[in-house]
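Escalation from tier 1.

The customer reports that the assembly of two entities below gives different structure tokens on two consecutive runs. Tier 1 could not reproduce it. I'm attaching the input and our single run for tier 2 to review.
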Amino acid sequence: MTTSTSSRGALILAGGRGERFWPWSTPERPKQLLPLASGGRTLLAATFQRALQLMPAERIVIMTNAALVAACERECPGAIVVGEPMGRNTAPAIAAAAAFFGDSDAFAVLPSDHAIDDEAAFVADFDRAFTLAAREPLLVTFGIKPTSPETSFGYIQRGAALSDRVHRVARFTEKPDLARAQEYVAGGQHAWNSGMFVWGKRTFMQALSVGRPAVAEAFAGMSFRRGDERAFEAAIGQVFSTVESVSVDYAVLEVAPNVVTIEAAFDWDDLGSWSAWARRQPVDARGNVTWGDAVPVDCERCVIVGDGAPTAPMGLQDMVVVTTPQGTLVCRREDSEQVRRVTEAVRARKGRP
Amino acid sequence: MTTSTSSRGALILAGGRGERFWPWSTPERPKQLLPLASGGRTLLAATFQRALQLMPAERIVIMTNAALVAACERECPGAIVVGEPMGRNTAPAIAAAAAFFGDSDAFAVLPSDHAIDDEAAFVADFDRAFTLAAREPLLVTFGIKPTSPETSFGYIQRGAALSDRVHRVARFTEKPDLARAQEYVAGGQHAWNSGMFVWGKRTFMQALSVGRPAVAEAFAGMSFRRGDERAFEAAIGQVFSTVESVSVDYAVLEVAPNVVTIEAAFDWDDLGSWSAWARRQPVDARGNVTWGDAVPVDCERCVIVGDGAPTAPMGLQDMVVVTTPQGTLVCRREDSEQVRRVTEAVRARKGRP
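Tier 1 run:
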């Protein structure tokens, strides 16, 4: 029942700005290019390596922003790396990248800014998704069992069961309020939307032509091959400047009738904060997570990153201390999801006369 | 009664390593070369400017270590700046530098690592000390009214009164334990030893020849003039390699009978920690002391220094956060006197294979 690898492809989305890891993350080195994955790999490299267990490198398209093309090529040798002329959200990005796949191909869509450690379970679930997508015109999503009432995630409500761990999707809900998120977690019918998908190219383009006809039309008939990367970028440059910026969730998933969801058997973490990253890292005898030139003195349960010079907190508990040539962040672990407040303050300061 | 300025001199001691302000302080830029004085001046420049109100620049000798000669020359234009071949504590340094003064001159000894803001009171007290030293063979010290039971300072116990705010010295006590320091503060008979002195060259050398004859002998008869700096350094190079390393307190003050003390009318702070420095700095609306590229987000009563890149603490109270290209320090304000623990940990880490 497994599809042959020759008809499989993957699109890795690697264009995010990833500012949650300021000051480690920079425009030149956003979250997906930081060594946040297990084994000290970048999240992008880890995503690529997972994809390589499903298909060869030449079937993998990396879509990023123009400034990161070279960095992504280093992380993903052999892949097709293309730079978006401008950010237009996921629906146009996926529709454009589909031009590298054949009409009868199925391809996975993989964000590159989260962590997954159980690669065997990942490969098994994606094998299953490719089989489903090859057999029927289905849009396959992956639902993550929610462990907390996150209000910044999208949720998938399961409908009728199709087979073990596979259901039709009853409804998508983006970023519910806390009360609703708590209901979802308690009710057991909802999963987090991981943002990973598998579908046939034809199935996807057809669903897009229903949800956003103009977007589908803009990329219809485009066909590119490995080696055409710069021609592709030139071709989509014009299209992107006029096409609607819209997510694949709004444009396709929330309107299509043929969406199914697999309850993921693998772990998943979106690493939304320094704290979230630290929870997956090894700790020292006093519970500290350290990276680089970190010199904790009498600290407990701290997250300490020293990139370039010694970072030496003394007598602290449950704090995040990160120093890079870009700047220094210090906050309580519990506040580390609010890093946006810091990046905004740093930008505001730059704007000062 | 005032002595003419032509017979006055000053020796500014500027050789300290000053590690209490790590990571701002470095071997190349120790405490006395940091802009910790009021008006953003370096402590050395502020010391020099105070001395200039008592005598012209060419009567001021700056003694530092060889690596800091150029930096001290920039801070103290017109002064005689000499580099010690090695650290030998204060008695040899003063005996050597005395070679730039005449036998009938009086000179002040001024450490360069503390803060004094009331310059008028400083000048008046030193004028008085020079007058005393010119009239009688006295070793004049300056006592600071103690405001807390510091155990890292030396204390001067006052004896018989000679005139308003001038007493004979009954006894010196170095670094008492806390109980004794508390007694001293409560008793009202003790003052902190500021490490500043005024004496005639002849008076000093005579007292040294009693306390440490070999040290006095090693420098006896040496005479140098402005322009002789490098010859002076060569001459003392040999002497320093064999002379005893001993403080002027042990070698002279604790044994001489002719020591008097002036109750200082000026303020004085040894700036022994980040906290001590911050107490003398202006604060923002939320009580934060900031320097350089400091970007506090929702912080209160913090000390924030950003040298070279934005230093952005979020949601902190009563903390010290200092980032320089040399490293990052984070601790509670109340712990900032323990920075030595950090510098030792940073050094230990460098020694690792």
